[in-house]
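Re: your question from the hallway

Yes, I did run it. Sequences:
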Amino acid sequence: MQKRKLLEEQFFLWLMRIVTLSIILVFLFIMGVIIKKGYHAMSWEMISQEPQGGFYFGKGGGILNAIVGSLYLAAGSTFCALLLGLPVALGMNVHWVTKTKFVGAIRFLLNALWGVPSIVFGAFGFALMAYLQIRASLLAGIITVTLFIVPIFIRAFDEVLRTVPQGLMEAAYSLGANRTQIAFIVFFRQALPGFITAILLAFGRGIGDAASVLFTAGYTDHIPQTVQDPTATLPLAIFFQLSSPIPEVKARAYAAALILTAIILIISLVSRLSTRRFKKNIL
Amino acid sequence: MAALQRLILPAKLTDRLSTGWLNFAVLFLILLPLVIGAGLVIKSLPLLEQASIGTMLHSAEFSPQQGHFGFYAFIMGSVWVTLLSFVLSAPVCLLAAIYLTEYSPQWLTQSMYFVIDVLAGIPSVVYGVWGVLVIVPLLADYVAPALGLTTTGYCLLSGGIVLAIMAVPYMLNMLMEVFRSVPIELKEASLSLGATYWETIKWVVLKKGLTGIIAALSLGISKALGETIAVLMVVGNVAKVPKSVFDAAYPLPALIANNYGDMMSVPLYDSALMFAALLLFVIILVFNSITSFFLYRIKEQ
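Structure:
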C-alpha cells in the first residue's frame, strides 16, 4: 500500500516535470525559429526604407512603412485608451468604492469585453466605418484598436489599484482632499508601477493584433501623413508577405516577424525594469 | 501628477470636470457591448430577413454566389479546432500549474512567469509564422506518412496544436493563481492526518480549486474560439465539415478575416460575415459570463 502511494506520487511528479520542461522547450523552440529565420533575412534596408518598385516581386526596399504605421497606430490607440480607461479605473477604486454592486457590475462587464476576440472588434469597426462614412485609415484603425485595448488596460490597472490600502483614502479625506485629488494624486502615485505595466500591456496588444486592423486600417506602401491616410501595420505585413510564392518576399515576412517579436520583448523588459524603478514611491 | 497639486487650479472646478469626464467614460464603457451587439445585428439583418437562424446554423451549403449561407461547416470547424486545442493544452496546463505552485523551486517558478509573460505577449501572427514553418511540414512530412496517411499539413491538427500553445499562458497563469489561493491550513490539516503530498493535492487542492479550474479552462476555450490569424494561417480553410484531424477546416473567425476582399461584390455576403461575427460575439460573451460567475463564487467563499 505504502509502496503504491509512493509510486503514484513519483509517477505524477515526473510527469509534471516533463510537462513543465516541455512548455519551456516549446517556448525556446518558438523563439529560436523566429530569431534564426528572421536573422537570415534581416538587413538594414529592411528597417530603414519604404517598399521600392517591384518590392512584392522580391526587389529592393524595406518595411519601414509597416513599422512606423504600427507604432503610430499603437501609440494613438494607447493614448485614447488612456483617456477613457484611466478615469474609469481610478473611479472604480475611489469615487464608487462604496457602491460595491455597481463596481462589481463594471468588473463583470470588463471581464466579458476582455475576452471578445479582436476579429469581432474588427467587424464592428468596419460596420462603424460604413456608418460614419470614413474609409480604411489610420483613424479607423485607432478607433477599433482603442475599443479592443480599453478593457485590457482597465483590467490590468484595476488589479493594482485594488491593492492600495483603504487607510490612505481615509487619511487623505481627513486632510481635506476631494475625490479627484485622492484619485489622481494619491492612488495614481501608489499604483504607478501597475499603471506603467498596464499601458505597456495595452500597447503590446495594440501593436501585435492583426484581426482588428485587417478591415479598418487598410494597407499602403507609404508612411501615413494624416490620420485619414490608410496605414500599413507589421502583423499584416507579415501575413501578406508570408502568403507570397516568391522566396525573397517570404523571407521578409520572417524578418518582419523578428522585428515584431523584438518590439514585444523590449516592451516586456521595459515593463519589468520600470516596475522595479518606480516601486520606491510606494508606501 | 504632483504638479497638479501645485497648480493654482480651483480644486472644486477640477473635481467637477474630472468627475464629468469620468461619468462619460464609464457610460461609454457600459454602452460599448450593447452598441457592438446592436451594430452587428443591424448589419446582419438583410440576411436574417432572407433565411431563418435555424436553417443557417444547420445547413452546410455555403455558396454566396447563389445566395446560400449555411454556417454548419464553419461552426463545426470552430468547435473541432477549439476542442482539439483544449484536449492538448488543458492536461499540460493543469499538471504544470500543480508542479509550479506545489513542488518546484522558487527560481523555476519565477522564470516561468517570464516565459508566461512572453508567450502571452507574442502576437498571434508570429505563432502563425511558426506554425507554417514548423508544425505544417512536421505533420505533412513525418507524422502523417508514419500513420499511412497523406495531408498537406494545413489541417485541423496544425490549428489545434498552434492554438493549444497560444492558450497555455492564459490557462497556466490563472490555474496557478487558483492553486495558490487554496488556504495553507487545509493542506497542513491533510498532511498532518498522514496523507502524502500527492494525496493532499488530489483530494484537497484540486477539490477546493474546482470552480477556479473550471473558470480557467473555460477562459482558455473562449480564447481559442476567437483566435483568428494564427489559425487562419495553418488550418487550410476548406469549407467542409472535417472528417479527421488531418482534414482541412474553416473556423468562423477565419471565414470573416479571409473574405474581406470579396464581400462587397456579392449581395448579402457582408451581411453573412457580420452574422458570423455576431455568432462569435454571443458565444464568447456567454462563455465569459460563465467564467466570471465561477470566479465570483470563489471570491464569495
